[in-house]
Amino acid sequence: MKKHIYIYSPSSAVRDKASFKRGVKRLQALGHEVEIDEAALASHQRFAGDDETRLAAVHRAAASGADVALISRGGYGLTRILPGINYKAVAKAIAKGTQFVGLSDFTAFQTAVLAKTGAVTWAGPALGEDFGTQAAPDDIMEACFGDLITGQGEGTGWQLPKNAINSIADSAGVSGGTGTFSIRDAVLWGGNLAMLSSLVGTPYLPVIKGGILFIEDVGEHPYRVERMLTQLLHAGVLAQQKAIIFGQFSNYKLVPHDKGFKLTTVVAWLQSQIKTRVLTGLPFGHVATKVLLPVGCKTTLAVEGRDAFLLWGHQH
């Protein structure tokens, strides 16, 4: 099914032009019409153009009428321009069928859109990192992207790691025993942990009560992950959620003086601080195999033993 995909750069400058070109060719090979924003390869300092250039790119993406507005890459830059985004125009584009897709720095855009309009965006791939790889793109990522484009995505599932923390007492709104439970009609939201913690105290972090929060990050040592979680904890964000799901935390290095302090330590510590269920292993983050997740959508989380499912039904 041929779709119109708009490629734009709202954050860091594209440094790997080869992966950008490969990504475009791969999407075209899948039969899609790919439109490249006029400033997609712009560069100003570390950014894909100055703030005004990137704001204009966001607004062109919203006005493009495309089926999918896909970021070229993440990096840094969106928090600088959040006050200048025309959120009504973005929400209008989404209502007309444009799906905004991305991850990493794009989390700032997604949470801001959710806070300002309630509209749903999609946590998913970026052009270069996911479609522009030298080897073939990950088949699960590509299949999930295909489901989004064809309107067939209704949910995703994964297997919880062995010895996953899944044994806390039932909390409000949760049914079932320790190994089987479900949380229904909860808003799914989240994304990159560094971005989420950086938006605490701003009007761009939505106030979600009874939600399902998913988190991921890259290059962050577990103690830094814990520090960011502590900020969300002390701000009252985490205790208001019905579930917190750890995605992939990749590309960090433990050091000798950690002396056993690792990511599982952080997960166990977090679970000791809140009654909210904490799950791990979600295939999403700065990794090749990633699912697509509707940020801001009412979602059901169901767990049966080690099998976990996020179900949101038709979005079209």
Describe the model.
It is a single chain. The protein has 316 residues and is an alpha/beta fold. The chain has 2 domains: 4-150, Murein tetrapeptidase LD-carboxypeptidase, N-terminal domain (Rossmann fold), CATH 3.40.50.10740; 155-311, 3-Layer(bba) Sandwich (Glucose Oxidase, domain 1). 31% of the residues lie in helices and 23% in strands. Strand 1, helix 1 and strand 2 (33-36) form a beta-alpha-beta unit. The longest helix is centred in the first third of the chain and has 13 residues, at 17-29. The radius of gyration is 19 Å and the shape is globular.
Give the key terms:
single chain; 316 residues; alpha/beta; Rossmann fold; Glucose Oxidase, domain 1; seven-stranded mixed beta sheet; six-stranded mixed beta sheet; 10 helices; 31% helix
Under the CATH scheme, which architecture of the largest domain would be assigned? 3-Layer(bba) Sandwich
What does the main sheet amount to?
7 strands, mixed
Gyration radius (Cα, Å) is 19 Å
Poorly predicted spans = 165-177
Give me the count of strands.
13
Secondary-structure element sequence?
EHEHEHHEHEHHEEHEHEHEEEE
Instruction: Tell me the number of helical segments per DSSP (H or I, 4 or more residues long).
Output: 10
Shape: globular
Task: Give the CATH H-level superfamily of the largest domain.
Answer: LD-carboxypeptidase A C-terminal domain-like
Helix content: 25-40%
Q: Taking all residues together, what is the mean pLDDT?
A: 94
Beta-strand fraction estimate: 15-25%
Widest sheet: strand order? 6-13-12-7-8-9-10
